[in-house]
Amino acid sequence: MFLVQLGLTGLFIALVPLSYVWVKASDDKFRKLVWVTTFLTLDLVMFGGFTRLTDSGLGCPDWPGCYGTASPFIAHAQIAAAHAALPSGPVSMQKAWIEMIHRYFAMAIGVLIIAQTLIAWVARVKRRPLHVSPWWPTALLLLIGVQGAFGAWTVTMKLQPVIVTTHLLLGLALLGTLGWLAARVTPVPAWEPEVARWRVAALVGLALLVLQIALGGWVSTNYAVLACTDFPTCNGQWVPPMDFAHGFHLWRALGMTSDGDAIAQDALVAIHWTHRTFAVVVIAYLVMLALKLRRFESLKRPANGVLAVVALQFATGLSNIVLQWPLPVAVAHNGGAAILLLLLVVLNFRTASSRPGRAAIPTHDAAPA
Q1: Contact (CB, 8 A) for 361 and 122
Q2: 232-235: which pairs have CB atoms within 8 A and are 24 or more residues apart?
Q3: Residue 100 and residue 192: Cα distance in Å, rounded?
Q4: Model confidence at 128, in pLDDT bands (50, 70, 90)?
Q5: Least enclosed by CB within 10 Å: which of 7, 115, 196, 280?
Q6: Where exactly are the transmembrane stretches of this chain (predicted)?
Q7: pLDDT of res. 367
Q8: Active site includes 297?
Q9: DSSP bridge partners of 262
Q10: What is the 3 state secondary structure string of the chain?
Q11: Is 41 in contact with 342 (CB distance < 8 Å)?
Q12: Tell me: the pLDDT tens digits for 51-62?
C-alpha cells in the first residue's frame, strides 16, 4: 500500500511542472517539457548533494519508503526511537525528511520522463515531427531505473563510497543526457563551418570534466574535504605523505580499508590532493577552450558560461578549504559542477552538429497540444 502512496506523491509533484508546460500558449510543448525536466534534474542533483552533505543519506535506513511507510509523519515513532537510542546517529526527523524529499522529487522526475517517452512514441505513431527519436526518452527512462537501483543500494549498503559515487555519476549522466536532448530539440544557431574543427577539443574537455567530477565525488563520499586544511599547500607541504593504495581502493566500507581497519589520514589526503591537483589541469584546459570558442556566435553564450562557472568552482572549492566546508558553499560547488557539465554538453552538441547537411529545427514543433 505504501508503494502506491509513494507513487501518487511523485505523480502529484510532477503534475505541477506538467501543468505549467501544458497551459502555456505554445506549440513546442515537448521542447518545454524537456527543458523543465532538465532544470528540475539539475535541482535534484543539487539536493542530492545537500542530502549527502547533511549526512542524511541514512535518515530513512530502508528503501524506497521510510520504515516501511510512505512518509516520516507515519514513521514518527520509529524515527524517534532510533534517534533516542543513538542521538549522534544517522537517523533523525530532520534527516528523514531531507532523504524522503529527495526520493519524492526523484520519483517526480521519473514521471516527467515517462511523459516524454509517451509523447515521443505517440508522435512517432501519428507521424508528428518532434525532431527527436522516441528512443532518446526511452533510454532516459532506462537510465533513471538504473539510477533508482543505485539509490536503493546507497541505503542498503550503508553509504559505501563506490556505490554513492556511482549514484552521483549516474545522476549527472541523466542530467547530461537530458541536456543533450534539450539541445537536440532546440533550434540550432546559424551554421559556422569552422566550429566543426573543435569537436575533438570539446569532447576532451567533457571527458576531463567527468573525471574531475568523479574525483570530487570520491572526495565527498569519503568525507575527505578537510584532509588538507590549507591552500595552495596541503597541510604545509606541496607533496604531503599519501596512501594512494587505500585511498583509491574502490570496494570497501565507508571510513574503512579493504581489510576492515579504520582508514588512515594519509589515504584521505591522497584523495583530496589528487582532486585538487587535477583541478589545475581541468581549469587550465577549460579556460583555454572557452576563450577559443567564444569567438563563434553559436558558441559564445555557453563558452562565456564555462568561464563564469569555472571561476565560481575555483572560488567555492577554495572556500570549502579556507572556511572549513560551510554547507551553502559545498552545495554551490556541487551545483557548479553540474552546471558546468550541462554547458560542456551544449558545446559538444553544437560542435558536433555544426556540419553541412544537418537540417535546422524550425522555431515551433508540431507537438501534441
Answers
A1: no
A2: 234/269, 234/272, 234/273, 234/276, 235/269
A3: 47
A4: confident
A5: 280
A6: 6-23, 35-53, 101-123, 135-156, 162-183, 195-215, 273-291, 303-323, 329-349
A7: 41
A8: no
A9: 256
A10: CHHHHHHHHHHHHHHHHHHHHHHCCCCCHHHHHHHHHHHHHHHHHHHHHHHHHCCCCCCCCCCCCECCECCCCCCHHHHHHHHHHCCCCCCCHHHHHHHHHHHHHHHHHHHHHHHHHHHHHHHHHCCCCCCCCCHHHHHHHHHHHHHHHHHHHHHHCCCCHHHHHHHHHHHHHHHHHHHHHHHHCCCCCCCCHHHHHHHHHHHHHHHHHHHHHHHHHHHHHCCCCCCCCCCCCECCECCCCCCHHHHCCCCCCCCECCCCCECCHHHHHHHHHHHHHHHHHHHHHHHHHHHHHCCCCCCHHHHHHHHHHHHHHHHHHHHHHHCCCCHHHHHHHHHHHHHHHHHHHHHHHHHHHCCCCCCCCCCCCCCCC
A11: no
A12: 988 999 999 999
pLDDT-above-90 percentage for the chain = 74
* Residue 346 CA: distances (Å) to CA of 69, 141, 216, 220: 41, 21, 22, 27
The one catalytic residue in 99, 192, 194, 297 is: 99
Which residue, 234, 259, 240, 239, is CA-closest to 249?
A: 259
Residue 272 near residue 323 (C-beta atoms within 8 A): no
In degrees rounded to 5, what are phi and psi of residue 39?
Answer: -60, -45
Residue 127 confidence (pLDDT):
78
Question: Residue 99's closest CA among 146, 50, 167?
Answer: 50
Q: Which three cell numbers stand for residue 9?
A: 506523491
Residue with grid cell 539509490, as numbered in its chain: 151
CATH tag, 192-357: 1.20.120
Note the pLDDT tens digit of each residue in 81-92.
999 999 988 999
Neighbours of 175 (CB within 10 A): 22
**Distance, first Cα to last Cα, the chain:** 34
Give the CA count within 13 Å in the CB-facing half-sphere of 317.
24
Mean of per-residue pLDDT scores for the chain: 90
Q: Indicate if the pLDDT at residue 236 is higher than 90.
A: yes
Residue 67 has pLDDT above 70, yes or no: yes
> d(Cα 66, Cα 48) in Å, to the nearest integer?
17
